[in-house]
Write a structure and sequence with these properties.
Number of domains: 2
CATH architecture of the largest domain: Alpha-Beta Complex
Helix content: 40-55%
Largest sheet: 5 strands, parallel
CATH topology of the largest domain: 2-enoyl-CoA Hydratase, Chain A, domain 1
CATH class of the largest domain: Alpha Beta
Oligomer: single chain
Order of helices and strands: HEEEHEHEEHEEEEHHHHEH
Strand order of the largest sheet: 1-4-5-7-11
Number of strands: 11
Shape: globular
Length: 295
């Protein structure tokens, strides 16, 4: 029998190793589950499925929140996935993103636009800014009925390009050179984005509809974070369906937000069915919606 002190030391090192190794094992389990869900979704739809999902993540050491957006690394990875897919094979891109770099978004959009195979964009929650730009390259956009897209008007620094031009159109003899330079850059940015959007939608939509899409998304009628819902997307002429597969929501559950001490949203994670002639009884105890990977 080991001395008591030895038992305590062994227990300490066992706990230390478990706490050290568990995050890596947990990550591997999630990655495996994601691949399984991806393969199941591909079999269900008969397509190649690519995901472009941005959640707020936490830095491993400091535990600080780190915002994610469409980056050059993302465009490299998506383009590689497209190269590994037969050109005439149908492709689904699941997007959940606030947007990101124009260059990266345009690279992805142009690559999808050049494919002869059918491309479908699946938006379970939101695809703003650069995400919307990518969606314009698709043959069809499939959104949750509450999901949103966003304007693609360019931003110059911290200001909308259209707002810079609007400000410089006002008489001001004391305007400095920097403002004039920003106005010049803003005019170029607006022209470039309009040309990009026009190139993505022309040939896929009638000319009148294509022009309406270009004007609506690039003219700066809304703030850059304005949510464009399904009805507005259809009114401007986009081909939008709301028949998003349930398995897409299951896949999204495997991209959890960083853990918190207390979840912001709680509910009983089962579907409710209203009984005939009566009301659905309330749950006696709220259960947080957490998966096995967050335990």
């Amino acid at each position: 029998m080991l001395p008591v002190g030895m038992d305590g030391a062994v227990l300490f090192w066992v706990l230390f190793l478990a706490l050290t190794l568990w995050p890596g094992l947990q990550r591997r389990l999630i990655e495996h589950a994601r691949l399984q869900r991806l393969r199941a979704l591909e079999r269900e739809r008969g397509t190649r499925v690519i995901t472009l999902i941005h959640r707020q993540e936490v830095m491993n050491i400091l535990g600080l929140p780190l915002a994610r957006y469409i980056s050059i690394e993302d465009s490299e990875a998506v383009l590689q996935a497209i190269r590994l897919t037969p050109p005439d094979a149908p492709l689904d891109l699941v997007m959940h993103t606030p947007g990101g770099l124009v260059l990266a978004s345009e690279q992805i959009a142009q690559a999808l636009r050049r494919r002869p195979g059918r491309t479908t964009i699946l938006v379970p929650h939101y695809a703003m800014s650069g995400g919307t730009l990518i969606a314009l390259a698709a043959d069809e956009i499939v959104m949750d009925e509450n999901a949103v897209l966003g304007p693609v008007d360019p931003q110059v620094g911290e200001y909308p390009a259209v707002s810079i031009l609007a400000a410089t159109s006002q008489p001001n003899p004391n305007r400095d050179d920097r403002t004039l330079i920003l106005a010049d850059v803003a005019a170029k940015a607006i022209r470039q984005v309009r040309e990009t959007v026009a190139g993505l939608v022309r040939g896929r939509y009638p000319d009148e509809v294509a022009e309406r899409i270009v004007e609506t998304l690039t003219e700066g009628r809304w703030t850059h974070d304005y949510p464009i819902d399904v009805q507005q997307a259809r009114e401007m002429g986009l081909r939008v369906s709301t028949e998003i597969p349930v398995s897409v929501y299951d896949l999204m559950q495997l991209y959890p937000q960083p853990g918190q001490r207390r979840p912001s949203v709680e509910y009983v994670p089962i579907p409710y069915h209203r009984p005939e002639g009566g009301r659905q009884p309330p749950a006696s105890r709220p259960v947080p919606r957490r998966g096995w990977w967050q335990d």
